[in-house]
Amino acid sequence: MEQNKKMAFSPSADRNKEPILNVLNEYIQENKRLLEIGSGTGQHAIYLAQHNKTLQWVTSDVKANHLVIKSYLKENKLGNIHGPETLKIGVDDFPKGSFDYIFTANTLHIMSWKEAKTLFKLLGKRLRAGSLCFFYGPFNYQGKFTSPSNDEFDQLLKSKDSKSGIRNYEDILKAMQSSGFKMIKDHEMPANNRLLVFERLTHKK
Length: 205
Prior knowledge:
By secondary structure, the protein is of the alpha/beta class. The chain has a single domain, classed as 3-Layer(aba) Sandwich (Rossmann fold). It has 7 helices and 9 strands, in the order H-H-E-H-E-H-E-E-H-E-E-H-E-H-E-E.
């Protein structure tokens, strides 16, 4: 088990957890419910949920990652973390119940752009007015990389899957606006990353 935990450990999740917490704490209110899309190892869930004890944090990911998430949740035994729920964008709907927040880190550049647009549409269908979405990761602006390291990372992603790659901020903004959201703030984060915050507008009648 110890060996499996070491293999499942995400150094990037460990590095960025505190900066992400600092931003989320600007928005998170007490007694709310959050769905994390693509929980990975579960490290973000553990760290962020233990600093927001009244927040009900629901983990989700593809089935293949459930065992790792379960091992982290079992070890930490936090009562306000739930799941993991099975969620593959384009295949599964969101878990039952309503959510006040959606959080996802380093997923938009892994999924295809078609899957990303499917996610944005699903957010528009499932979230109520006032709900917030948090997208963490690297993004391009006006089609340009913000750093040489992001350029190299994009090449690495495409070498593994031609449909993945760092997404353009303007494309995300347009797609989210089409799904009924407005941009609240684009936070600058360490290591050439960003944290985009969107709010669900009132549904059209």
